[in-house]
Design a protein that fits this description.
Blueprint (H helix, E strand, L loop, with lengths): L1 E4 L4 H12 L5 E4 L9 H11 L3 E4 L7 H6 L1 H21 L4 E5 L29 H21 L3 E6 L1 E3 L12 H15 L3 E4 L5 E6 H14 L2 E5 L4 E3 H12 L5 E4 L14 H5 L8 H14 L1
Parallel strand pairs: 1-2, 1-3, 3-4, 4-5, 5-9, 6-8, 7-11
Antiparallel strand pairs: 8-10
Helix pairs in contact: 1-7, 2-4, 4-5, 6-8, 6-10, 8-10
Length: about 300
C-alpha cells in the first residue's frame, strides 16, 4: 500500500497518476479534505486506518517568492506542524519508508559552492526572501535524521528544484515562477494588456516538469535513502522562460520588464550525481512542459 499526501496538488497529483500508470495497484491519495495534517490526532488516525507500507509526503503550505516574504509566520508554523504530524504518524504505524518533498530553498545564501551538494544544507542561513519556509523544511530534514537514529526510520528527502505543471497554483502573487507567469500571460491574452515581469530576467534556475519529478520520486523511493537533490540538470534564466511563453502564446510583443522588483537568488544549480547514479533521466524538455502546462491552464 502506498500513500501520497498532498495528492491534489502539483506534485502529489502527478505522482498518483504516474504510480497508477506504471502498475502500482494499491495507491491512496489524500488531500486537505481527507485529513487535516495540522491536527496530530487526526493525522495519526488516518495513517493508522490506511496502514501504508510506503508514504510519499508531498503536502505543504506553499507560496512563491512574494507569498513567502509576506507570510513568514504562518508558513513556518503550518509547515512545521504538517511535517511533524506526518512523520510521527508514520513512525507509530511502522511505515517501511517515507519519501518527502523538500525544497532548494533550504540551501544557504550565499551558497558555499556551486553546484549545490546535499551536505551543504546546514552550512549557513537560507536566502532572506524564503527563510521561514526553508527553516521549516530544514526542521523536517533534522526530524528525519533524528527518527532514523532513534527509531530506525527509513527515509528519503528530495531537495527540489523549481517544479511546474498542471494543477499548480496559478497565482500572480503567491505562485512560483512558472505558474505565476502563465497566469500573467493568460490575463494579458484575455484583457489585451501587457505582461509585466518582475526583475530583469537574469536569475537562473533548474526547472523541471512535474511528470519527470513524479518519475524521479518513484526512482528515489526504490533506490536512494537520505537527502538527494532533484533537478533536470539544465539551468534556464527567467528571461528564457518568459521568451518560451511568449512564443507559445504569441504574446512576445507585450512583455515588459520591471527592474525595480527583486530577481530572487541570482543562480541556483544542483549536484545531481546521486539522482543520476540511481538511473534517472528526464523524459520531457522545458518547451514541451511549458506548452502542456499552458494548454492545461487554458482549457481546464
Amino acid at each position: 500500500m502506498i500513500l501520497v499526501t498532498g495528492a491534489y496538488g502539483l506534485v502529489g497529483s502527478a505522482l498518483v497518476d504516474f504510480l497508477r500508470s506504471t502498475g502500482y495497484k494499491a495507491v491512496v491519495g489524500i488531500g486537505r479534505n481527507d485529513c487535516n495534517l495540522l491536527n496530530s490526532e487526526e493525522t495519526k488516525h488516518v495513517i493508522a486506518r490506511i496502514r501504508p507500507d510506503y508514504v510519499f509526503h508531498c503536502a505543504a503550505k506553499v507560496y512563491g517568492i512574494l507569498g513567502n516574504m509576506n507570510n513568514k509566520g504562518i508558513s513556518f508554523y503550518e509547515n512545521v506542524l504538517i511535517n511533524t504530524n506526518i512523520v510521527e504518524a508514520v513512525r507509530i504505524s511502522k511505515v517501511k519508508k517515507i519519501t518527502v518533498m523538500g525544497t532548494g530553498a533550504v540551501y544557504p545564501y550565499p551558497p558555499p559552492g556551486l553546484p549545490l551538494k546535499e551536505e551543504m544544507i546546514f552550512m549557513g542561513s537560507p536566502h532572506s526572501s524564503e527563510d521561514s519556509y526553508a527553516h521549516a523544511k530544514r526542521a523536517l530534514l533534522a526530524m528525519l535524521r533524528a527518527y532514523e537514529e532513534s527509531y530506525k526510520l527509513s527515509w528519503a528527502y528530495l531537495v527540489s528544484c523549481n517544479l511546474f505543471g498542471p494543477r499548480d497554483k496559478f497565482d500572480t502573487e503567491n505562485g512560483h515562477v512558472v505558474p505565476s507567469l502563465i497566469k500573467k500571460f493568460s490575463d494579458a491574452k484575455k484583457n489585451g494588456t501587457d505582461i509585466v515581469v518582475w526583475g530583469n530576467g537574469s536569475a537562473r534556475r533548474d526547472f523541471m516538469y512535474v511528470k519527470d519529478a513524479a518519475a524521479a520520486l518513484e526512482c528515489i523511493m526504490n533506490n536512494i535513502n537520505g537527502a538527494v537533490n532533484l533537478g533536470s540538470g539544465k539551468v534556464y534564466s527567467i528571461r528564457q522562460i518568459v521568451e518560451f511563453l511568449g512564443e507559445i502564446t504569441g504574446l512576445t510583443s507585450r512583455i515588459k520588464w520591471d527592474a525595480s522588483k527583486p530577481n530572487g537568488q541570482e543562480y541556483r544549480s544542483y549536484d545531481l550525481s546521486r539522482l543520476f547514479a540511481a538511473g534517472f533521466s528526464c523524459k520531457y524538455d522545458i518547451e514541451y512542459g511549458l506548452r502542456e502546462t499552458w494548454n492545461w491552464h487554458e482549457h481546464s
